[in-house]
Amino acid sequence: MSDPKPIQSETAPIARHPAAEAWEMFRRNHAAMVALIVLSLIILAAIFGPFIYPTDPFDMVWAPFSPPGADGFILGTDYLGRDLLAALIHGARVSIVIGLAAALMSVVIGVTVGALAGFYRGWVEEILMRITEFFQVLPTLLFAMVIVALFGASLPMITLAIGVVSWTAVARITRSEFLRIRELEYVTASRASGAKNSKLMFRIILPNALPPIIVQAALMVGSAILFEAGLSFLGLTDPNVVSWGQVIGSNRQYILDASYTVTIPGLAIFVTVLAISLVGDGLNDALNPKLRQR
Amino acid sequence: MRMIYAVILLLAVLVLNFSMMHLAPGDVADTISQSMGGADQEILDQIRADYGLDQPFLVQLGRYIGNVLRFDLGYSFFYNKPVTELILQRLPATLLLVFVAQILALFIGVILGVISARKPNGIASHFVTMLALFGYSAPVFWTGILLLIAFSLKVQLFPVAGMRDVTIIGGFWVQFVDVARHMVLPVITLGSIFLALYSRLSRATMMEVLGSDYVRTAKAKGLSEREVVYKHALKNSLSPVITLAGLQFSAVISGAVLVEAVFSWPGLGTLAFQSIIARDTPTILGILFFSALVVIVGNLLTDLALRLVDPRMRGKG
């Protein structure tokens, strides 16, 4: 929130929706805008790619290790002679769907835990924060590996595993926002006017706690994609679905003959996550009022 | 206080471990009967009775915790060895990798942070920014493979895999150099992510400290820029970075699992990977327990380090 402008000023800005104001800020960040465009292209490719480029990523279409550009395969073929471009296009779906679903799940868990802890304080907070610390002690990747190994490597289980291990940051952020906001006067006023606890928490406090949570959620999508890539690189993935990490994992024995089968899918992960984190940075600048004053 | 809390955390890890083993489809009896090539219901029941699997959940849980306290994490039917022995064989390699990567990342990160805080538009500062972008976004196993391609395959500077060369025989220093040569790429791969984190944070805190009143006072006293930075400012900017490093231990271990897989480093991560493929549940859960132990010990060490750096912390805990 910038300093209040004098009302009599002729150039007084018309009060605008906060989202419009944030978008205005976001647009000025060139890196974030470029990243947003790249990200949109990747998402469009994930949605419509398989219709435009219908090659099945599991079909052995050509000789193995045909380099990019040769024989009509734009990105070449892998160790079984499967089309790498088709694998990338289909893999984008898995990465983005799991990234979004796992991030959503960890945000839901994290916001619930953080909101309850920050709102009720006392023993509720004590217990919930101890549980949060417990989850911070478990090495996330190992824990997720164990879940997937014990309960099966299906996409919902992988999403669940990633969501369950990565909500702690959201919980901490939500809690500290709640601790700050619950003391503000408007909350006291709502409480005095008889608002119920559930309404106070989710209708009155939460909306004002959202900006840092949104930024964190954006970053979570990126880290969930990296996480899924790591799991599938290790082979802990649904064998009937192509994913970027799995392409790298299955081709990595052949890096001497065909390093592109590993470098190209890795580049896809890198560019996607980089775009997400730049968009996250842009959101942070646009939504964080403290930074905006500068 | 801290120690008691650490013990409670460990117990919680055990309960979680055991519950997951309990909830997972298939049990030890199934594993044994599979390795025998199948068994009928009567033998299965017999095995379950032998291993106490027919007892109530809480009794089994109590026995499991009791066993772990006696360093008995069960028996690996895949490796035909007690899990504890298996893990203790692999643990040193992981500890070496994790701690060397952490300490180097912390050390170099702070130096980079200080240099770039003094010259916010200098080369070091831009390097920190680029490194941060790369460190956050590049999958660690991909970075590892890229380094492998560049420095082991194209330019044959470093060995491709493993921790030591079995053909090399010699005294301590010969062995030391051998392990060090094998470690270079895994440590760089693992350290780069955390180097990005630490250098960015220490640049930020250092810039804040350099703008504070007492630094201005120190400069006004006539101390040289160097003395101000390294004697006064550095000390005060260290504790946030060390706190962050303490929080990263579980992430470092997660990273180590992937780095070990890339470089065939003979540590816990590789063991975890192999035992997951072999569906060797006792070993998997033992590794989860030990890695939680490493994180907890790492946190305690961080607390100690913080007390050394920041006298205000000494009264607490």
Question: Which helices and strands, and how do they pair?
Answer:
The complex is a heterodimer of chains A (294) and B (317).
Chain A: H1 18-28, H2 30-52, H3 84-120, H4 122-137, H5 140-151, H6 155-165, H7 168-181, H8 185-192, H9 197-233, H10 244-251, H11 260-287, H12 289-292
Helix pairs in contact in A: 1-11, 2-3, 2-11, 3-4, 3-6, 3-7, 3-9, 3-11, 5-6, 6-9, 7-9, 9-10, 9-11, 10-11
Chain B: H1 2-23, H2 28-36, H3 41-50, H4 57-69, E1 75-76, E2 81-82, H5 83-118, H6 123-137, H7 140-154, H8 172-210, H9 213-220, H10 225-247, H11 249-263, H12 268-277, H13 281-309
Antiparallel strand pairs in B: 1-2
Helix pairs in contact in B: 1-4, 1-13, 2-3, 5-6, 5-8, 5-10, 5-11, 5-13, 6-8, 7-8, 7-11, 8-10, 8-11, 10-13, 11-12, 12-13
Overview features:
heterodimer; A: 294 residues; mainly alpha; 71% helix; B: 317 residues; two-stranded antiparallel sheet; 13 helices; 2 strands; 77% helix
Question: Span from first to last CA of chain A?
Answer: 11 Å
Strand content of chain B: under 5%
According to DSSP, the number of beta strands of chain B is 2
Principal-axis shape of chain B equals globular
Return the string of H and E elements of chain B: HHHHEEHHHHHHHHH
Number of strands of chain A: 0
Report the largest inter-chain contact.
A-B, 39 and 47 residues
Query: What share of the residues of chain B lie within helices?
Result: over 70%
The helix tally of chain B amounts to 13
Structural class of chain A comes to mainly alpha
- Specify the biggest β-sheet of chain B: 2 strands, antiparallel
The number of helices of chain A is 12
- In terms of DSSP E residues, the strand content of chain A is under 5%
The topology string of helices and strands of chain A comes to: HHHHHHHHHHHH
Q: State the end-to-end CA separation of chain B.
A: 6 Å
Question: Which parts of chain B are unreliable, with pLDDT below 50 for 5 consecutive residues or more?
Answer: none
Binned, the helix content of chain A reads: over 70%
Mind describing the biggest β-sheet of chain A? none
